[in-house]
Design a protein that fits this description.
The protein has three helices and three strands. By secondary structure, the protein is α+β, with helices and mostly antiparallel strands. The chain is globular. The model has no long low-confidence stretch (mean pLDDT 94). This is Helix-turn-helix domain-containing protein. It comes from Agaribacter marinus.
């Protein structure tokens, strides 16, 4: 399982890092674990599924 940081997810989804943190806080994008600084880390597969679903619903 490849993990992505908030910055990597933001770049992949073409959104701001603050929005990624909000998605995680609202349980729309679930983190798998935290890094050594306490920042959430996301499974690449989950991020890809979220992007696909968001695009189907009209965009991110």
């Amino acid at each position: 399982m490849a993990l992505m940081s908030v910055t990597e997810v933001a770049e992949y989804l073409s959104i701001q890092e603050v929005r990624v943190q909000r998605l995680e806080r609202e349980s729309l994008l679930m983190s798998k674990e935290n890094d050594e600084n306490g920042n959430p880390m996301f499974a690449r597969e989950d991020v890809e599924k979220y992007k696909e679903l968001a695009e189907r619903l009209g965009g991110i």
